[in-house]
C-alpha cells in the first residue's frame, strides 16, 4: 500500500504542478488575483505531496519491501539502515525523486521568503518553477517510476551498489542536487524578468541570495564528490575530468560567473542581458548534466544504468525548456539595455574580465566533454581526458586568481591605477616571497609549477584577509570593526580565501604527489619518498554484508612511526563485487594513502602507495567557499531588500485596489 | 531583435541535433584503425604441429575469429559459425589466451567451425590485431586486407548486413 | 559494473616496475595514466584491473625497457586501437580546433569585452544606480 500511496502522491503532485504553472499566468493576464495567489498554495501543496512520495519510498527501503522493483534492485536485508535510507537516491529513479523533492523544496522556499516581493514577480517565478516540475514529474511517471512493483516478489534484494556504500555518498548527491536544482530559481527569475521586462537593481538583489545559495550547495556537492572518489575509487585521484564530473563542474563555472555578474547588475545596473543569459545557461547546464549522466551518450565511470528512452525524454525536455527560454531571450534581451559607463580599472571592469575567463573556461570544459560526441558524429572515435584538461584549464583560469586580489581593492565606477598598485604592493610582495619559499621549505625541492601556484594562492589568501583588515582598521576598535564588517564581505572574503587554499592544495599535490605500486610479502616493507611502509599482516574479517581482507600497514617517516593504516579489500556478498577501501593518514600538510590490491598465489599482496601533499587543502578550499556563500546570503542587506520591496508594495497596494 | 541575441538559441539547436545523433549510437563500440590495411603479420603454431602465417590467409576471403573456451559470449555465436562453415565460409580460429587442451575439449563438445586453428597463447597477435574483447571477427579479403571487424558475438543480422556483402557471391 | 567498481593493483607491472630505474618508472606511470582502457567505462590502463589493461601495461613496460620513446609507444597503440586509446588527443586535423578553440574564444571574448567597455564610455549620460532604482520604484507606483 505504501508504494501505491507514493505513486498516487506523485500523480497528484503532477496535477498540482500543472496548475501551479498555468493558473498564475492566466491570473496575471486576466487580473484575477485569486489565480495569481494559486501559485503559492500550489507550491506548498506540491511540496507536501512530493515529500509524502519521498517518505513512502524511504519507508519501502526501511521495511525492505522487495516487491517494489527499485527497492529490490538497490537494497538488501543485510544493508545497514543508514545505507538503506541513502539507497533511495542510489540509482536513477530514486535520485530523480530526490531531484523533484529538492525542486519542490526550493519552490516552497521561494514562496515563503519572497512573500514581500511584488505578487506578480513571485507568481511568475513560481509558475516557471512549476513548469519545470511538470517536466520532471512527467519524466518520472512516464519512464522511471520508483514505485513500480513486480511479481513474484524476490526473497532478497540485489543490494545497493557497493561503491555507494560510503558516508560520502550519503551527503554528496543531496548537496549536488541542491545546487543543480537551486539554479532553477535564478532561471525562473531570469524568465520572469524577460517576460515582465522588469530588470533593475532590485531584481538583481532578489535574485542574488538564491543564486549564491545554489552556488554554495553546488560547491559543497562537487567538493564532496571529489573527496568521495578519492577515498572510494582507490587510485589516489581526486578529479578525473570524467563526463559526469564535468557535468557538475560546467554549471558551477557558469554559476560562479553569474554570482559575479549579478553583483555588477545590482551595484551598477550593467550587464543585464549577460546576467540573464548566464542565469539561463547555469540551469541549462544543470539539465545538460542530467542528460549526459542518464542517457548513455558518453562513456563514464559514474554513469547511471542508461536507457535510450530516458535520454530521448530529457533531450526533448531540455530542448523545450531551454529552447523556449533562449528564444524568449533572443526576442526580449535587446530591451534590457544597460546604459552606463564601464571603466577598465573599476570593480565592474575587473568583474567583466572575471566573467570572460570563467565563461571561456566553462566553454573549454564543455568542448572537451562533448568533443568525443562531435567526433563520433563525423565517424571518428576520440578520447579527451585529463592530459587535455590539465593543460588547458589552468591556463584559462590562473588569470582569475590574479584578478581576485585586485578586484577587492578597486572601487566601483573608477579606480586609480597608482593607488591600486600602492594598495596591493605588500600583499603581492608577501605572496611572491612566501610562495617561492614554500616548496623549498616543505619539500626541499624546487618546482616552477608549485611555486607559481603557491604565489597565486597566497596572493588570493592575503588579499582576502587584507580586505577584512582594511575595514576593521577604519574603525576605532578592532571589536567594533569586526562587528561592522557586513556579512556579505565576510562571505566574499572567506570564499576568496578558500579559492587560495584550493589553489595552494592543487599546485602542491600535482607538483609533488608521488605514487608507487609494490608487491609485498607480509613482514616486508617498501619506501615512497621519505615514507616507509611495513606490511605487517593481512587478515580476513566479516562485515554486515561483505567479507574483507584487512591489511595492517605501519607507516614510518625517517624511522619514526606516524600511523598504522588498515586498507581493506571487500567482497560484497550480494553483488559479488570487489571494492577497495583505501586507508589514509592525513594532516593539513600531507596525505599518506594505502590501497590494497590483488593477492598473489604465494601470499604476497599488490599494494598501491600514494603521497599526496596538501591534499586536504583542495577540499578545505571548497568547504570555505561553501561557508562563505552561506555567510553572504545571511547579510542583512537582503532582508532590507525584502523590506523595501514590501514597503513599495504596501504603498502601491491602494492604487491596485 | 538583434542577431547576437540569437546566438545562444542557435548553439542550443546545434547541440540538440548533436545529442539526438549521439543517442542513436553506441559509444562503447570502438572502430578498428586496421580496416583497409593489410592484416598484421603473425606466425603461430597450429594444434597439428605446423605453423600458420598471415600470407597463408591470402587467395580467398576468410573470417578470422578470435575466441576462447573461457569466453561465454563465444558460445552464443557458435551455432552461426557452424552454419557458416557448413555453407563453405572459411573461418580461421585464433585461440586467444587459452590452453590448447581446453580449446580442443570445447570444440569436441560444441563442434568445430574452423578450417584451421592458430594458437595465440600470450595474446600477442590479438594485441597486434587490436582485439580488446573476445569474440571478435575480422573479414580478410583475398589480397590479405582487413575489410571489416565485428566486436562481440556475431549475429545473423550483422552477418547479412555487413559481412555477407563482402564475400564473393557463390 | 563490477569491473568499474574495483580499482586495483597493476599486477603485471608491479614486480618489474620495482626494479626499473626511477626515470623509466616515472615515464611508465605517466604513460599508463594517459592511455585509455578499451573495455572499461572511462578509466586509464593505470586505474583499470581488466586483463586487457594489464596486457597493455605490460606492453608499455616492455617497450620502455626496450628503449622506445613515448611517441613510439603511443603510435604503436593507436595503430592497433585507434585514437580512442589516447586521453591526450593528437594535435592534428580536427583536434586542432579542440586544442586551440578555447584560446581563440578567449581572444575573441577579450576583444568583445574591450569594445564593450570602449562603447560604454562613449555612451551618453550614465545613470547612477540609485537614481535608477528610484525610477524603478516610481515606475511601480504608476500602475
**Total number of helices of chain C:** 7
- Count all strands of chain C and give the number: 0
> Whole-number radius of gyration of chain B?
20 Å
Query: How would you spell out the order of helices and strands of chain B?
Result: HEEEHEHEHEEH
Largest sheet of chain C: none
Query: How far do the termini of chain C sit from each other?
Result: 61 Å
Please mark out the parts of chain B with pLDDT under 50 across 5 or more consecutive residues, or reply none: none
Class from helix and strand fractions of chain B: alpha/beta
Number of helices, counting only DSSP H or I runs of 4 residues or more of chain B: 5
Order of helices and strands of chain C: HHHHHHH
What is the share of helical residues of chain B? 25-40%
Number of DSSP-assigned strands of chain B:
7
Beta-strand residue fraction of chain B: 15-25%
| Rg of chain C, alpha carbons | 27 Å
Q: Kindly report the average pLDDT value of chain C.
A: 76
Helix content of chain C: 55-70%
| Biggest protein-protein contact in the assembly | A-C, 78 and 64 residues
Shape of chain B: elongated
Provide the descriptors you would attach to this structure in a database record.
heterotrimer; B: 170 residues; alpha/beta; five-stranded mixed sheet; two-stranded antiparallel ribbon; 7 strands; 21% strand; elongated; C: 143 residues; mainly alpha; 66% helix; disordered N terminus
Characterise the protein shown here.
The complex is a heterotrimer of chains A (657), B (170) and C (143). Chain A has 657 residues and is α+β, with helices and mostly antiparallel strands. Chain A contains 19 helices and 10 strands. The relative contact order of chain A is 0.08. Chain B is an alpha/beta fold and 170 residues long. Chain C is mainly alpha-helical. The chains are: A alpha+beta (657), B alpha/beta (170), C mainly alpha (143). The interface between B and C is medium-sized, with 14 and 14 residues.
Secondary structure topology:
The complex is a heterotrimer of chains A (657), B (170) and C (143).
Chain A: H1 2-30, H2 33-62, H3 69-74, H4 81-86, H5 92-113, H6 119-143, H7 167-196, H8 201-232, H9 243-268, H10 272-295, H11 308-332, H12 347-377, H13 386-407, H14 417-443, H15 448-473, H16 478-484, H17 487-512, E1 514-520, E2 525-528, E3 531-542, E4 546-557, E5 560-565, E6 568-572, E7 577-581, E8 583-586, E9 590-599, E10 605-613, H18 615-633, H19 636-656
Antiparallel strand pairs in A: 1-10, 2-3, 3-4, 4-5, 4-6, 6-7, 8-9, 9-10
Helix pairs in contact in A: 1-2, 1-6, 2-5, 2-6, 5-6, 5-7, 6-7, 6-11, 7-8, 7-10, 8-9, 8-18, 8-19, 9-10, 9-12, 10-11, 12-13, 13-15, 14-15, 15-16, 15-17, 17-18
Chain B: H1 7-23, E1 43-45, E2 51-53, E3 62-67, H2 72-86, E4 90-96, H3 100-110, E5 116-120, H4 124-128, E6 136-140, E7 146-151, H5 156-163
Parallel strand pairs in B: 3-4, 4-5
Antiparallel strand pairs in B: 1-2, 3-6, 6-7
Chain C: H1 2-5, H2 11-19, H3 22-34, H4 51-65, H5 70-81, H6 95-122, H7 129-141
Helix pairs in contact in C: 2-4, 3-4
